[in-house]
What we know:
With 294 residues, the chain is of the alpha/beta class. The chain has helices at residues 4-58, 93-108, 110-114, 125-133, 151-166, 217-293; strands spanning 78-83, 118-123, 138-141, 172-180, 186-194. α1 (4-58) runs antiparallel to α6, α2 (93-108) crosses α4 (125-133) and α5 crosses α6.
Amino acid sequence: MPNLKAIRIRIASVKSTRQITSAMKMVAAAKLRKAQDKILRLRPYANKMHEILTTIIRSYEDTEVKSVYSRDSEPEKVLVVVITSNRGLCGAFNSNIVREARRVAVEDYHSQNNNGNLSYLAIGKKGYDSLRKYKLNIIDEQNNLLNELTFDNVYVVAEKVINSFLSGEFDKIILIYNQFRNAAFQNLINEEFLPFRTPPVENRGDLPADYIYEPDREENIQELIPKYLRIHFYKAILNSYVAENGARMTAMHKATDNATTMIRDLTLQYNKARQASITGQILEVVSGAEALKG
């Protein structure tokens, strides 16, 4: 028969845990709403910039724009930017990113990894710790970036990444992150950040009317591409931050529900054990009374 005191202690412990998970759920929900406001404000600007850039590029006859941000050669040195979180308790949010980062090293860029030409930039402590455990080549970490996520702070890191491509230090840069879908689901994104690819034209009849550009189209494109890349880099990190809080809110919600179920089961177990104990005591009293009669 379970010890009544042990069950009471366990019930109290689970209730304390439920209070913590419930509080963490509310904190994550508040952060999620705040982060969602940021990305909703950013999205129209980013979409419009993409639309303008695409319109100018597609106005070219050959639809191919030569730029210092574009290369057609086979990549020899690759940089993978892995965006995770600084804290855990958010389900499979971080493990999915790390698994994809390892898959890239084993499958997509196996030869570069063997030659030491595959490098990682870790944004988020959880990703950094996991990549270091698997002994992957980490050239830099930006864990503090998530503590105060602003465009100015991200701009510095984005410039560093873009300049490493322009200087020839890397031939290709990949972003791996979670894109926010809703509080319960995130899309795992593995996308090429650099070199910049010209958007394809499926039907030239759908192109907008020709415009007069001032200055010329070439200068506009060379000016817009770096701005677009910085905005896209910031948008990726902001997406990951929103998805992290959504995943943590969902995980803490499930943990709170599980704790409630466990408390209910433990309370039932306690009542049964207490009833059995009382029944045993009554039997002992009745048995003693019968023994005295005899």
